[in-house]
Design goal:
With 406 residues, the chain is mainly β. The protein is built from one helix and 25 strands. It has one helix at residues 27-34; strands spanning 43-49, 52-54, 62-67, 71-81, 94-99, 104-107, 116-125, 131-142, 185-189, 221-223, 228-231, 234-245, 251-255, 257-259, 269-270, 274-280, 287-294, 301-305, 313-318, 323-328, 338-345, 350-354, 357-361, 371-380, 395-405.
Length: 406
């Protein structure tokens, strides 16, 4: 996140706007209600999952839609209504997202439901402010410990006896969740309650020249603790224009940052640790989210940096023993999609993982005695290397968890 050289020229989501109380209607009815007053093309809901879930279990939804022609929706998300008509929508909406004939896919944040039957549907809000509900379907949430019975299989003829095969050892099941063998969870935040101030400092970092702002690294950031909120198991970082003026004369944006530096716990990752975060990539110009490390004016390892102008690319950088990779992954890395990104801080090689699969090893490492604080944040680009924000609409970025294995 601290720029030491001119990088490759590359190009929010999660507009965590709550869906207003809108009655559940079918796709045709929704268009009859709204299309007369809003000039938007026909939108089709191609896919919506899941159709079943277990009570109390964290569940995400996946939505795919396409439009007859391209237009920009103010908000896109997945709505849920219980039998009484109460809103129980999935968190993690997309904000200011273009929907085109080629389609748009969204994976929401996680939430849980009591046992029961719900109506679920995709929705979007057009630029005029009108809400459009797409085709509804049923979400059945079973009580914990139960499952939907499957049809009884037809009786099969008795098999012909065969020689007993030589047993093949099965791999031991993972008990830690880390793709790096031999690691156990040692520190984490699942963002399941109010922000834990013993774990996180949300107001200042020594990585910024002035503590709460930093005009020297092509950033418009001005940290504001109120720009990090936690709800429904998701931490949302929000950036918006402010009245602050940076030392270079540019207008600052207030935004959110979390660091383990300067906290009661004072947690640091160190050589041999594996750290990962599950995040939802933003789409708005100017967004610059990252998971990185910092200590004593350096010790920086960038687990990822992301810029929506290159929507399928992650910047992976070791600033300790310089190495980097520009990873392009059109399947797992895209605006609006949740992705897990992890880093193994090896003495001789830093290794990066996407959704549990190793994607890059730098073969330089961090050395035997490295340690640093973690930083998860949403920076705003000032426009030198990537586009600055194109307007004043707030930009958001979301995280489901941060975990460290040792």
């Amino acid at each position: 996140m601290i720029r030491t050289s001119t990088p490759l020229r590359l190009g929010v989501v999660a507009g965590a706007l709550g869906l207003l109380a809108v009655p559940v209607v079918g796709q045709a009815d929704a268009w009859a209600r709204t299309s007369a007053t809003t000039a938007v093309p026909q939108v089709t809901q191609d896919r919506l999952t899941p159709t079943t879930a277990t009570a109390g279990a964290s569940t995400t939804a996946a939505l795919t839609v396409h439009a007859a022609s391209c237009f920009t929706a103010k908000t896109v998300g997945v709505g849920v209504r219980d039998a009484a008509g109460n809103n129980l929508d999935f968190p993690g909406n997309l904000g200011n997202q273009q929907i085109c004939p080629s389609g748009l896919s969204l994976t929401t944040g996680a939430r849980s439901f009591p046992a029961g039957t719900y109506q679920m549907f995709g929705f979007f809000q057009d630029q005029a402010g009108a809400w459009h509900n797409l085709t509804t379907q049923t979400l059945t949430v079973a009580a914990a410990g139960t499952s939907t019975p499957a049809p009884a299989p037809a009786p099969a003829p008795a098999p012909t006896p065969a020689p007993t095969p030589t047993p093949v050892p099965s791999p031991s099941p993972s008990t830690s969740g880390s793709p790096v063998a031999g690691k156990a969870l040692t520190w984490s935040d699942e963002f399941n309650g109010p922000l834990d101030s013993t774990k996180w400092n949300d107001s200042t970092t020594t990585a910024y020249k002035y503590g709460n702002h930093n005009p020297d690294d092509n950033k418009l950031d001005w940290l504001d603790p109120s720009d990090v909120s936690v709800a429904n198991g998701v931490a949302t970082f929000t950036a918006q224009p402010s009245g602050h003026t940076l030392e270079n004369g540019k207008q600052a944006w207030t935004t959110g940052l979390l660091t383990t530096e300067g906290t009661q716990q004072g947690f640091k990752v160190k050589t041999g640790d594996y750290a990962e975060a599950r995040v939802q990539m933003p789409s708005a110009p100017g967004a610059w989210p990252a998971l990185w490390t910092w200590s004593n004016g350096g010790s920086e390892i960038d687990s990822f940096e992301y810029h929506p102008d290159n929507p399928n690319l992650l910047e992976l950088t070791n600033h300790v023993n310089p190495a980097h990779d520009y990873l392009t992954d059109a399947t797992d890395v895209k605006p609006g999609q949740w992705v897990t990104i992890g880093t193994y801080y090896g003495a001789n090689s830093v290794d990066w993982y996407v959704n549990g699969v190793k994607v890059y090893s730098d073969n330089t490492g961090v050395g035997a005695n490295w340690s640093a604080s973690l930083i998860l944040n949403l920076s705003i680009s000032a426009g030198q290397y990537h586009p600055a924000p194109s307007g004043s609409t707030p930009i958001t970025f979301a995280a489901d968890y941060v975990r460290v294995y040792r």
